[in-house]
DNA sequence: CACTTCTGTTACAGCGTGTTACGTTGACAT
DNA sequence: ATGTCAACGTAACACGCTGTAACAGAAGTG
């Protein structure tokens, strides 16, 4: 990971040097600029990881500059300004700024916010949507995590419905912990429609029953998917996770 | 672009419903949660685009939860808290939070910050696709984004209709994300005629069925082009993109 | 024009899932 | 023990969602 290169844009020389020094003392490369022309020169010249852009720049306006840059570039931009009213902040976010820091600011907090935005940019771009698929094993069963079925200890393939799969995932994510029905319902709720959650009735019990009938040797006397009377359900098997 | 799915984590029911309602009124899917267990259940169960995480959660602590999640997941996290001192904010950023919003907050400003973080995440992660996408590979298949056909794992050339190609592109551009029929229709609708979208009936289902019959080994049990009952369709194959 | 190919509509069957009803079990008080 | 009551299991049912065959235009091609 190379040293981050930041652009510090402010028309006040004092402020500019304060910020560049602060950044340099904290292992950043800080390049000063004071106009849109200079910003564009830097952008076309070399890599810029983030721009700290003052809103009031004499005759120019940081908000407008930000809007224009956004139309062409993905470079992270943090607006800095003495204008700290909510509507002014929102104007900044509206034109695509990643953050809006009010002056005067706590130097350490500013560094933290700069790091946060850069980390988000880096994290997302490096591993784009890598899906986390883990394989679970419990009591001879093998659950792939990305298919709606599982392998029985005897080698048969047992098909699960999507909802059964979802339930199994929730249970596997919380091994040996009793889960209340409400918790399971909210976890399975795809829509976020809270009204629905209350009307669910005994749906979870049915779901559990159906899953039991598929994976328990003796569904009448469940060993893995146990009932915690008055509480909910608990997945009580030794689970090993791979990858 | 599919509807963002947010997790709202707060132990105060009033606060939680205020936030979920606010988000829902602004075209987000807001899923309520109140414990780390519920968060993990949701994360293992479905896509979550961003977590709004309260810092003080009864016996649990949002900072610690955030730190733990960060070690495993890339999901964007915004901390929300009544603790607004600088050192408390910095503690949040230190554990990898993307933003830190102090309570009480201006609802519109909160929305703006949520959008900012999500846009940053999306912008970066979609970089791969923004570049003139050339060639996609998935499960042995090769799709040359500019032709209306694709190469099967066995080397045969399978012809696709225009509309099938368009559907495939939409799916490839949104890997592992369930797309509603409306979303697919609007994405396929080049004219922008919104009336048409409603009159589409089951066209998407037919289209999906026909594409399945061409690219799924066993169209009766689709592995790549899966159905999310009550939601829509999702492309669930590992995709690699070249150039 | 005939012919082919693509695409949307309709109808129907099958399946997944929630609800209801009823029987069983377990906890607790008497 | 025995009764009581709430919690739980599950069979039966109802309903909505989805897959798909069959058909009908639409659009291209010669």
TrEMBL record, chains A, B:
PROSITE patterns: OMPR_PHOB, RESPONSE_REGULATORY. Residues 133-237 bind DNA. GO terms for cellular component: cytosol; protein-DNA complex. It comes from the Bacteria. One of its GO terms (molecular function) is phosphorelay response regulator activity. Signal peptide: none annotated. Residues 133-237 form the OmpR/PhoB-type domain. One of its GO terms (biological process) is regulation of DNA-templated transcription. InterPro entries: CheY-like_superfamily, OmpR/PhoB-type_DNA-bd, Sig_transdc_resp-reg_C-effctor, Sig_transdc_resp-reg_receiver, WalR-like, WH-like_DNA-bd_sf. Keywords: DNA-binding, Phosphoprotein, Transcription, Transcription regulation, Two-component regulatory system. The modification 4-aspartylphosphate is found at residue 54. Residues 5-118 form the Response regulatory domain. This is Transcriptional regulatory protein OmpR. The lineage of its organism: Bacteria, Pseudomonadati, Pseudomonadota, Alphaproteobacteria, Rhodobacterales. The gene is ompR_2.
């Amino acid at each position: 990971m190379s040293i981050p290169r930041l652009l510090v844009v402010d028309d006040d020389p004092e402020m500019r040097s304060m910020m560049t020094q602060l950044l340099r003392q904290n292992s950043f490369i800080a390049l000063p600029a004071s106009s849109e022309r200079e910003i564009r020169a830097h952008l076309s010249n070399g890599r810029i990881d983030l721009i700290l852009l003052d809103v009031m720049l004499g005759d120019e306006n940081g908000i407008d500059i930000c809007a224009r840059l956004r139309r062409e570039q993905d470079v992270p931009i943090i607006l800095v300004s003495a204008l700290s009213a909510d509507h002014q902040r929102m104007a900044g976010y509206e034109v695509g700024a990643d953050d809006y820091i009010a002056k005067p600011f706590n130097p350490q907090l500013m560094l933290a916010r700069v790091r946060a935005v850069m980390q988000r940019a880096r994290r997302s771009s490096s591993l784009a949507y890598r899906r986390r698929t883990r394989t679970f094993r419990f009591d001879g069963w093998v659950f792939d995590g990305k298919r709606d079925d599982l392998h029985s200890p005897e080698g048969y393939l047992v098909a699960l419905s999507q909802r059964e799969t979802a339930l199994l995932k929730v249970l596997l994510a919380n091994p040996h912990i009793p889960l209340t029905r409400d918790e399971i319902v909210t976890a399975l709720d795809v829509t976020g429609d809270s009204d629905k959650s209350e009307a669910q009735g005994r749906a979870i019990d049915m779901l559990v029953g159906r899953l039991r009938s598929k994976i328990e040797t003796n569904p009448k006397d469940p060993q893995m998917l146990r009932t915690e009377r008055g509480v909910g359900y608990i997945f009580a098997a030794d689970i090993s996770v791979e990858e």
